[in-house]
Amino acid sequence: MADNIPSGLLEACVVVGASSENLKELYQAQLQGKEKELPTLEAEVLQVHAPPFVFKESENDGHGHAPAFSRVQRRRSFLKKKRERPAVSSSNGTKTIDSSISSADDLSVPKNIDLIALPQLCFPGGLMVATENQDDSYHFLVFTDVFGNQTHGVVVQYYKSLQFSLDGSAHQNGVRSSKLPRLYTAYGICVISKYPYYNALRDCLSSFLVQLKNCRMIDFEEQVKEFSAKLALVPIPPPGQLQVAFNLKPLAIVLPPREEMDRPVVDLDLHLPFLCFRPEQILQVICSILTEQRVVFFSSDWAKLSLVAECFMFFIHPLRWQHPFVPVLSRQMLDFLMAPTAYIMGCHLHHLEEVASETEDLILVDIDDGSVSSSCDADLPEMPLTAMECFKRRLEGLKMHHDLELCRHGSSSDLSDLRARRRQWQRTLNMEILNVTLELIVNIFRDVHDHLNFEHRVFNSEEFLRAQEPADQLFYKKVLDTHMFHSFLRERLNRKMDAFSRMEINTRSQAYRTRTMSDSPRRPTMQEMARKYTGPENRLSKRLGMSLPNLLEERALSGPIRQLSLMKSPLQSDRAATYRAGFKFPSKPLKTFKLPEFPPPLAFHYVQNYYLDLINQLSKVISVVSPEDSSLLARYYYLRGLVNSVAGKRLDALADFQNLYRTDTDIFPVDLVTTLVDSLQPSERTSADRRPDLKRLISRVKKSSEQARLEDGGSVKKFELPRTHMLVDDFIRRVQESGIVKDLGTITRLFEALTVGQLKQVDPEVFRYFYTIWKETEAEAQDVDLPTSVLEHLETNECVYKVSTSVKTSHGVGKIAMTQRRLFLLTEGRPGYVEVAKFRDIEEVKISSAPFLLLRIPSLKIKTSRRRETFEANLKSECDLWHLMIKEMWAGRKMADEHKDPQYVQQALTNALLMDAVVGCLQSQKAIYSASKLAFFDKMKNEVPMMVPKTTAETLKHKINPSLNLPSPQAVDILLYTPGQLSGVNSESSGYPKLWCALSDGKVVVFDAASWSMQQNCLQVGTSRLNCMLGVDHQQLWFGSQDSVIYIINPYSMACNKQLTEHRAEVTGLALEDRPEKYSTLVAYSCSAEGTVISWDVATLQVRRHFRLACDRLQSLQIHGGRLWCGAQDCVMEVRRNGTLHRKIALPDHLRDFSSSYSSFVLFNEREMLYTGCLNAGELCVWHLSDLKKPFQRIQLPDCAGVICMIKVKNQIWVGCHGHGGSKARGKIYVVDSERHLVEKELVAHSDSIQTLCSAEDRYILSGAAGLDGKIAIWKVE
Asked: Domain 1-54+110-163+182-255 adopts which CATH fold?
């Protein structure tokens, strides 16, 4: 529980130095001439200061309240060495240094700070006593506990004069005799924080030293304690765009925020490694870290060790180093380098030769010399070439010298202004560096996603390795065995949407997006084959997606193509051109919140007043922030919640954190809120229960904490071949894990094929043979080397999937090759191309026999509509297999053309390739019969008519499958089309419309509505069914969920970081009111099943009004003419804005006897007509708004079992229904003429009921079907 208490800037402040006994002995030795050289002294802990610094005893429970950002519970005792402390006084009779600095032997310190090793780390080169004053020096420390949690320290070493009088008393900062030797002793002050604020803490110490050097030693401990107490009052800013500033005279200190929740704060200069190393050496170090080598940094400057090592930790994000990380080793700690595990450590440069000669398998990084070498037997592979080349080109565009930036500025006498300019320059450069290094990591691990099985949490490492370039495989073999890569895999399998995921998605090539629209096995396209004949600069784009786009290749793709990269193509620019980042995340300008001046920090009432001032100041800022800037508003709420929690105002803190639901849930501190809830006193709990918002918050937090206890991070499994016999369920899992195919129906047919004539279980040896043949066939396709003359005849996205042996054909001798579109002959002798047939042109495929001497050789005959002559090939033993495969491809192509569904071709292709693997695996007489079990489309062609009704064929434009990456079809619950401007007014993709598709359990799939390519294959919006969607403005999409929450998504970032939680039942309807004027308030309405309707101010997300309607399940909401029209199961209501009922339309009399209920309605306001549909009735009722007693007309819908949804398009009403069909009800769409009240069209394209309809600018209608079909049909509107 203690870990969840908010922590401020300070964890502890420790003073380290030599004891006065050692100093006295040294002085006396100098005085007597015994010591010619000053020795190194042993450093000891002299003071420890840790929050809380003030307490107020509570009258109720007797426990002290500590108003500070501290973790009171996590403390332990540290026993100092006991010794005789003689009364050593200064010349003015003040206290001795030892009694001043160390008045207690038992020091209470935070539990995770190791005070035993700290003195060595504060003085890693030893504590020196000098005869002349020395400059102050700073260095930086990182402490890691056994759980991997890090704390960070900044150490300043400064010197103070010290002399002893003849009677043994010490003089410091006092008058000395000229006859006495002058000595200067070093003291170290180490400020420790949970957060890596290296620059800020260095500035704090710099400011403090100005005061400390002028203070008397009698005040030394009090000064350090006050300094520590002030830092304990500083809150840490939340992730985002708000930084915290405070005065610590003479400097103004700034604490920058983290950019994201999953990234640490960046408060150091990330360009330092680039000033020390060339790009090649930077890549070597990154490679050493990614492969988890033993890496040792060397420098003569202790400060560089930690800063440079920490920079590399940022460079590998989102991977995280999980081994020992000790960037500063003292002389006494060099034995740590003998550890057998991977580590990153740092030590002084003068140990380099000794370490290199005595320790094996080390990567030695010399920061001062800018070199990277290895000790004996260290093996460092090369990183992927394409990623390295891109990284080097990106670096050419970075401006890393601040002096060049200053050239255009005049001189400034304002120190604060100079520091602010430097911070802004550094922040901009840091962001550019992080983009470049993140792109490097994305380019290295881009292909990982293609080899993950999310359902079974399996990573197919063998296939991933096989897909890499041969020269890169050694690197990947080493990386795949590391702990950090395993954690990275776990996050990918959890579908974590972090900076890596966003960059990977946004830099995918259009070819990759098109490929992901099919579920066919991976084969190289003609486009990729053509790269074999181009220069190496063009081959870069194979692995980098859109990082280095080849514009000539992109033009060849069909459909609208967008360029996601800002960088010019290497084909269009000269080699000297600099490269900008392929995708840059927009960075909002930082806002600064300045803390009040510090009070006397050791008095309770002053500290309490300080917090009250801070709360009031935050409240004033919150009152003036524009509600539309919800992100900034969330940061202020978060900050005020932190301050309220440490000030003891727990209910106010909970109210502030409750406001994060409507402003930004990404920064919601679940652990802290849980701690606050658990710490509520009975009186506070009673008060919270009386406030609906807090009661709701407490309930949600309790529920989420229970779920968190039940959930784990999820394991990652490597794919392994089975060792035991498999029944059907186990077989399905194994095949899905292997990545061969995901579809349950296809795998079930494969199981039948492999178990023909035997027990219904698959032998592990049979599975191994099958898997091996499948992979060998895939590898053979990768090695197909087509001449350029052949490539010219094929389309860029065609792949060769099967090649026969050399056979005699009616067009000469050659090999028959099969792509997803055609068959063609690769002639032998002089390589050439002869087209055999496109699958859509085939009219007949049959097996015959060709006479040869006394033999009859099986041959295959193919008749097409484009040629008179029949193609014949003597395929011999392959004849039966090719006959099966071609018939399946032919049937699949016919189905695809008839139904406008390209996925049928991909399914047929998968079936054909599985037939090939089954025949190769079984090697028996029954192999062809077994393979025929996979002829799904060929059987379907014979069993059911393939022809689609003419009206349907003319109206249907295209079909897409949102369940493509799922093992089975999912019901399309709701569809929403958003025009291009909803993507974000400043984004590159703002001109492209999107289609949002809600599947089961809160899954949302996003399509580019210009090309119908899948942009986002699984956006998780809650965990329950989504009932409704609404495009509110360019920054907000609202999703009403079955769990009673309205989730709000930013269409540009795809971030679901806002929630409206006021509904108490499932949200069933959303509607947006038209603005009467341009600048008037935008209002949205929502309704829930129990009858509640809420009016929302869109800008503030505050409730304007709410009321409840008496009805049976309120399920839809529309706004017409300033009135609300609410559809329930038992009635349709016209309601005024204030919630009073104006009119009510009950179920017609003829439907009440059938236990029917309303399902949907459409209002033609201009004609004063209302159309209603019922769930169990195949008709539409037409009402005149002037007479709502009964419908004046009923429109019969032929072969309709019930109406599910309706939509108005121009002068038509499109009605989605479920039809009569016995056990398999087909979905039908009826197009009704609103003027003549007649059914114009009956459209049949779904094998299950129509769940949802939506309009795309009245040009197209999109329909989504229930789970047996699970597809989206796109219809033309006439």
From this structure: Beta-Lactamase (3.30.450)
Q: What is the pLDDT of residue 393?
A: 94
Looking at the domain 271-494, which fold is it?
Rossmann fold (3.40.50)
Amino acid (1-letter code) at residue 382? E
Task: Give the chain's largest Cα–Cα span.
Answer: 127
CA-based Rg of the chain, rounded to a whole angstrom? Answer: 37
CB atoms near residue 261 (< 10 Å): 12
- Degrees (nearest 5) of the Cα angle 1233, 1236, 1241? 35
Sequential DSSP letters for 201-248 = HHHHHHHHHHHHTTS-GGGHHHHHHHHHHHHHTPPPPPSSSEEEEEEE
Q: Which residues pair with 1014 in a beta bridge?
A: 1007
Residue reference for tokens 């017409």: 1120
Buried b (16+ CB within 10 A) or exposed e, 1109-1144: bebebbbbbbbeeebbbbbbbebbbbbebeeeeeeb
Residue 1099 tokens read as 């800008």
| Mean of pLDDT values over 1096-1107 | 92
Give residues with Cβ within 8 angstroms of 99, minimum separation 6: 85, 87
* pLDDT tens per residue, range 787-813: 888 888 888 888 889 999 999 998 889
| Strands 362-366 vs 294-299: parallel, antiparallel or unpaired | parallel
DSSP state of 141: E
Q: What mean pLDDT do residues 359-374 have?
A: 92
Query: Would you state the pLDDT for residue 404?
Result: 80
pTM attached to this predicted model: 0.84
User: Can you point out the beta strands (E) in 967-1082?
Assistant: 974-978, 994-998, 1003-1008, 1013-1020, 1026-1033, 1036-1041, 1046-1050, 1055-1060, 1067-1072
Tell me what the mean pLDDT of segment 253-257 comes to: 95
What is the rounded (10 degree) CA torsion for 261, 267, 268, 270?
A: 40
Angle between helices 682-689 and 650-658 (to 10 degrees): 40
Are 1124 and 1085 within 8 A, CB to CB?
yes
Give φ, ψ of 633 to 5 degrees.
-60, -40
**DSSP string for residues in 1144-1199:** EEEPPHHHHTTT--EEEEEEEGGGTEEEEEETT-SEEEEEETTB-SS-SEEEE-TT
Adjacent-strand bridge partners of 922: none
Cis peptide before 627 (omega within 30 of 0): no
199 pLDDT exceeds 50? Answer: yes
| Residues 1073/1030, Cβ–Cβ less than 8 Å | no
Phi-psi region of 706 (alpha: psi -120 to 50; beta: other; left: phi over 0): alpha
Helix (DSSP H) and strand (DSSP E) numbers for the chain = 38, 59
Cis-peptide, bond into residue 67, ω within 30° of zero: no
CA angle 676, 679, 684 (to 5 degrees): 90
Q: What is the β-pairing status of strands 44-49 and 56-57?
A: unpaired
By CB atoms closer than 10 A (0-12, 13-18, 19+), residue 925 is exposed
Structure tokens at 753: 């094929």
Strands (E), 67-215: 75-79, 106-110, 127-130, 137-144, 150-164, 170-171, 183-193
Query: Does an H or E element contain 103, and which?
Result: none
CATH of range 798-876; options 2.30.29.50, 2.60.40.2140, 3.40.30.10, 2.30.29.30: 2.30.29.30
Question: What dotted CATH number matches 603-712?
Answer: 1.25.40
Residues in the chain: 1278
